[in-house]
Design brief:
Elements lengths: L7 E11 L2 H7 L1 H23 L1 E6 L3 E6 L2 H21 L8 E13 L2 E3 L1 H12 L4 E5 H7 L8 E6 L8 E7 L15 E4 L3 E2 L7 H15 L6 E2 L2 H4 L9 H8 L3 E10 L2 E10 L5 E10 L3 H15 L8 H4 L8 H14 L5 H17 L4 H17 L5 H18 L4 H13 L3 H14 L4 H13 L3 H14 L5 H13 L3 H14 L5 H10 L3 H14 L5 H5 L7 H13 L6
Parallel strand pairs: 4-6, 9-11, 9-12, 10-12
Antiparallel strand pairs: 1-3, 1-4, 2-3, 4-5, 6-8, 7-8, 12-13, 13-14
Helix pairs in contact: 1-2, 2-3, 2-18, 3-18, 6-9, 6-11, 11-12, 12-13, 13-14, 13-15, 14-15, 15-16, 15-17, 16-17, 17-18, 17-19, 18-19, 19-20, 20-21, 21-22, 21-24
Length: 580
């Protein structure tokens, strides 16, 4: 009788292992093992659902995963390393848990629930050669993902792998530096761009200085190799006498860029200096005496020099991302900057409404700007959700038209994908919304706004663990975040069952924006059996927001899990809030 033929198939294999595991266990065995259990259940498991992977086996400090698609395997690997960056930043008092990852595409042999063969062995050997916090993929994988994955890989050469007969050509992503506090050796370069001082004596020129800072931050946020603090966090130091080292410590960065601008008619003088907050040394400085027509060239030069001076390891394709302009039309840029000066103050009908006409004038001057189309789409998203000006159908139509135009002009514009994600969420087209939200995060890994609105879309789509990862990531990128960040992350915490963390976020939201976060607290307390607290907070909510009704609240909620939404509305009713 012929021997039964072994079952084989082609698969993408991901091997991951903790770097320095023995050292970590030796220093704190219980803490390390507890952390790993949390990582497997809270960081890895939700990603496997998203990217259609399966655990072949857990090996204490490592894991072997199987995917049907090389694209899914690589996107899962990148998302996991990004999730670990957030995780390690959240526990800075502990030793970081850093993974090496190898991915290969090859023939495997099925042996019960296990898999064997060279396809598996190459993945494991690549993992052993991968940098901490990084990924090595084989050339076979790279061929499959070309043009399909946003993450940029650089050539790592041909590697001689143990017990593999022929050299394997490999490609590298990330690694070499971790993602947590940059003041420790071996960490990601991180920077805060402080508000530029307006030396012109004309308060109207404040918007010009702020626009320049915004563009520099936005450009750097496109790079995977640097952590740049969001502008709404660095803005808290505006017009304040500051100690650079103290600011750097508060924001968790190593480098600080400060500058000034003096504008007089068409002429301007921009002075900038980059400071290493660890040593206090001035790393680089420059003064530009130019005309306003040179503003875009100056932005390009500053961002390129910053990346060079911070020794950012640019991945393939990221050199092009160092040039970012909202518009190449100087007059349009001025209108954009004026609108931004209102928009960044608060997300309210008055502030967003004040930004809108400036951005409409900017777009009229440069209708081919993807960023301007995307931002106007976002204005109409707010209108559609909160009912500020037009009826919902009209506002949604306008938001959709702007978002679609932005994507048509530039399919790789992160703002366009963020806007598309939230607009599609309002239309309850959750799968499409998810794709755009995730794409925005891939295209702008350092953008706090991309991360927090991805959190919103993910939570609305019932992908709660992934939503929490993005929400926490936004908080790291923007330590002095806007109040509404707390509401979005708090909701992700609550819906994922992390009740006490949700309560803390909602209380902080209410403290910064009185009345907001209280409805969520009422729901949380009511559903957890703390009825007296729920009733008391319902009364407090009505005292602050007298027009609050459950019907109006429901009109702003968009969730795939309609049963949970109905239960939340029932909790509000039970606490005594008016139906409508």
């Amino acid at each position: 009788m012929a021997e039964e033929r072994a079952q084989r198939r082609l698969a993408a294999i991901l091997a991951a292992d903790v770097a320095g595991y023995a050292r970590l266990v030796g220093a704190d065995e219980v803490g390390t093992l507890t952390a790993l259990q949390d990582i497997w259940s809270e960081r890895l498991k939700p990603l496997l659902v998203t990217y259609h992977g399966r655990v072949v086996k857990l090996m204490g400090d490592g894991v072997l995963l199987e995917f049907a698609s090389a694209v899914d395997a690589v996107e899962c690997a990148v998302a996991f390393q990004e999730a670990m960056a957030v995780y390690n930043n959240a526990r800075r008092d502990n030793a970081p848990i850093e993974f090496r990852i190898g991915v290969n595409l090859g023939d495997i042999v099925i042996y019960g629930d296990d898999i064997l063969g060279d396809g598996v062995n190459v993945a494991a050997r690549l993992e052993s050669h991968a940098p901490k916090n990084g990924i090595l993929i084989s050339d076979a994988v790279h061929v499959q993902i070309a043009g399909k994955v946003a993450a940029a890989f650089t050539q790592a050469g041909e590697l001689l792998l143990k017990n593999i007969a022929t050299p394997v050509r490999a490609w590298r992503w990330g690694g070499g530096e971790a993602y947590s506090s940059a003041v420790d050796p071996g960490k990601l370069p991180s920077i805060a761009i402080l508000p530029f001082a307006n030396l012109s004596g004309d308060p109207e020129q404040e918007f010009f200085a702020d626009g320049l800072v915004e563009d520099i931050i936005t450009t750097l946020s496109k790079l995977s190799g640097v952590l740049v603090i969001a502008r709404n966090s660095s803005d808290v130091y505006k017009d304040r006498a500051i100690d650079i080292r103290k600011v750097a410590a508060e924001l968790g960065v190593r480098y600080v860029l400060e500058g000034s601008i003096r504008k007089n008619g068409p002429r301007m003088r921009i002075s900038v200096q980059l400071i290493d907050a660890v040593t206090g040394a001035h790393v680089w400085g420059e003064r530009y005496d130019r005309t306003i027509a040179d503003i875009f060239a100056i932005q390009d030069e500053i961002t390129l020099i910053l990346a060079t001076e911070m020794q950012v390891n640019l991945m393939e394709g990221e050199q092009a991302r160092l040039r970012y302009t909202t518009t190449s039309n100087v007059e349009a840029w001025n209108f954009w900057a004026r609108g931004l000066s209102h928009f960044r103050q608060a997300v309210t009908k008055d502030k967003v409404g004040a930004a809108r006409p400036h951005w409409e004038k900017a777009l009229a001057l440069d209708p081919a700007s993807a960023a301007l189309n995307a931002m106007l789409g976002f204005v109409h998203y707010f209108d559609a959700r909160f009912g500020w000006w037009d009826d919902r159908e009209t506002a949604l139509g306008r938001a959709t038209a702007y978002a679609d135009r932005a994507l048509e002009l530039d399919p790789n514009n992160a703002d366009a994908h963020t806007t598309s994600g939230v607009v599609l969420m309002l239309k309850r087209r959750f799968d499409e919304a998810l794709a755009h939200a995730r794409k925005a995060v891939q295209l702008a890994p350092g953008s706090a706004d991309a991360a927090i609105f991805a959190c919103l879309v993910l939570a609305s789509s019932a992908l709660l663990e992934e939503a929490v990862v993005q929400g926490e990531r936004a908080m790291i990128l923007s330590p002095h975040h806007p109040p509404y960040y707390l509401g979005i992350l708090g909701n992700a915490y609550r819906l994922s069952g992390r009740i006490e963390e949700g309560i803390a976020a909602f209380r902080a939201y209410h403290a910064r924006s009185p009345g907001f976060g209280l409805a969520d607290l009422v729901i949380t307390y009511q559903q957890s059996g703390r009825l007296a607290q729920a009733t008391r907070l319902a009364e407090e909510l009505l005292a602050i927001r007298r027009s609050f009704t459950i019907a109006a609240w429901l009109n702003t909620q968009f969730r795939r899990d309609t049963e949970q939404l109905e239960a939340d509305a029932a909790a509000l009713r039970a606490a005594g809030l008016p139906a409508g």
